[in-house]
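Lab meeting, item 3. Inverse folding demo.
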């Protein structure tokens, strides 16, 4: 089973959705050129054949996202009223060939303070949140990790909950500030359903 850390997933998501300049975002979403379809090692030997499939997708609807991923996508039926949905659904592909996994990410922001958000990551493959402790999420064994950067006291702490549900793996991360606290994150996690 493929293990991926939440840091890898969140880092990729933030790079793809928040930090990439507009001129680079088009390049990320484009299909690789034929010359980009083979990776070579430093010695010049072929290391892996890549597909021409994109690495990032931005479908407009959950059914469209399900067609891309090949698995059911869950959505929270409870979203605190203060939060607005993110601009879109993002799917990113990690790995190559048969070991490739497609990860779905959705983000909700507090319109009055964009430092307050929660994101839901879903993958068909198991992943860990690194540095987490055992916790119960939705009545099942899971993980919990609280991250606070002491060098940036103006940035809210982030709590991540990770668990397996119906054969899918989830990580729900939220900034702990204002209307969002651990109890609200647990309510959001408990409300996940396949809605389409």
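The presenter then showed the designed sequence:
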């Amino acid at each position: 089973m493929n293990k991926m850390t939440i840091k890898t997933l969140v880092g990729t998501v933030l790079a793809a959705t928040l930090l990439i300049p507009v001129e680079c975002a088009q390049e990320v979403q484009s299909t690789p050129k034929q010359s980009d379809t083979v990776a070579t090692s430093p010695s010049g030997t072929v290391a892996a054949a890549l597909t021409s499939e994109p690495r990032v997708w931005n479908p407009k609807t959950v059914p469209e996202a399900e067609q891309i991923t090949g698995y059911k996508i869950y959505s929270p039926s409870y979203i605190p009223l203060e939060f607005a949905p993110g601009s879109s659904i993002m799917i990113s592909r990690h790995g190559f060939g048969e070991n490739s996994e497609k990860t779905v990410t959705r983000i909700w922001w507090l319109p009055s303070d964009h430092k307050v958000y929660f994101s839901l990551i879903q993958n068909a493959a198991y992943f860990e949140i690194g540095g987490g402790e055992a916790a119960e999420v939705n009545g099942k064994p899971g993980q919990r990790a609280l991250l606070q950067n002491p060098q940036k006291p103006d940035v809210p702490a982030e709590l991540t909950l990770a668990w397996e549900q119906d054969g899918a793996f989830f990580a729900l991360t939220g900034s702990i500030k204002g209307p969002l606290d651990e109890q609200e994150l647990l309510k959001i996690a408990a409300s996940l359903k396949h809605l389409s």
